[in-house]
Amino acid sequence: MGDEKVKNDALQIIGMFQLLPRLVVFDLDYTLWPFYCDCVSKREMPSLFPQAKGILYALKEKGIDMAIASRSPTSDIAKTFIDKLNIKPMFVAQEIFASRTNKTDHFQRIHTSTGIPFNSMLFFDDEDRNIQSVSKMGVTSILVDNGVNLGALRQGLTDFSQNASRSEKNKQSWQKYSQNSNSSEKKDED
């Protein structure tokens, strides 16, 4: 499936949702591309997973910001590959640095630089520990097995939409509770 076909399919999927993330964050190794960049030479020409580029173009066309969160110990190679693939301008933030733990520091930096709340983010990664820790921050997080693809995009947008709806309902319930609480306080004062 060519990039243009994938892009059109991704646009169709995105169009099915009213609630969209403000920022989609991608891991690199085994999420956007099918290798660990610390196991290849900077001189090689990298490639993305087959549907990744079309998905990136679709998100860009829809005006959804994108970022990278990678724990790569070879950030120089990762950045070189991003340049070689001509995808650098697509990302509003690139947090690529080694970390022995998970990606919470990456997301704190992304949040600080973009101002986008965690609950307005969607994240794709191939490591469950990253998914677990980042989810606890309020980010909708999707585990990918074979790189980002249309199925993962659909799942991510579905989960994001459900999380956003749940959050909005909780907010409305809280506002209703607060209003009732305030009106009963006023009655007590009378």
Automatic annotation (TrEMBL):
<dbReference type="InterPro" id="IPR036412">
    <property type="entry name" value="HAD-like_sf"/>
</dbReference>
<dbReference type="InterPro" id="IPR010036">
    <property type="entry name" value="MDP_1_eu_arc"/>
</dbReference>
<protein>
    <recommendedName>
        <fullName>Magnesium-dependent phosphatase-1</fullName>
    </recommendedName>
</protein>
<dbReference type="InterPro" id="IPR035679">
    <property type="entry name" value="MDP-1_euk"/>
</dbReference>
<dbReference type="InterPro" id="IPR010033">
    <property type="entry name" value="HAD_SF_ppase_IIIC"/>
</dbReference>
<feature type="compositionally biased region" description="Polar residues">
    <location>
        <begin position="172"/>
        <end position="183"/>
    </location>
</feature>
<dbReference type="Pfam" id="PF12689">
    <property type="entry name" value="Acid_PPase"/>
</dbReference>
<dbReference type="InterPro" id="IPR023214">
    <property type="entry name" value="HAD_sf"/>
</dbReference>
<feature type="region of interest" description="Disordered">
    <location>
        <begin position="161"/>
        <end position="190"/>
    </location>
</feature>
<dbReference type="GO" id="GO:0003993">
    <property type="term" value="F:acid phosphatase activity"/>
</dbReference>
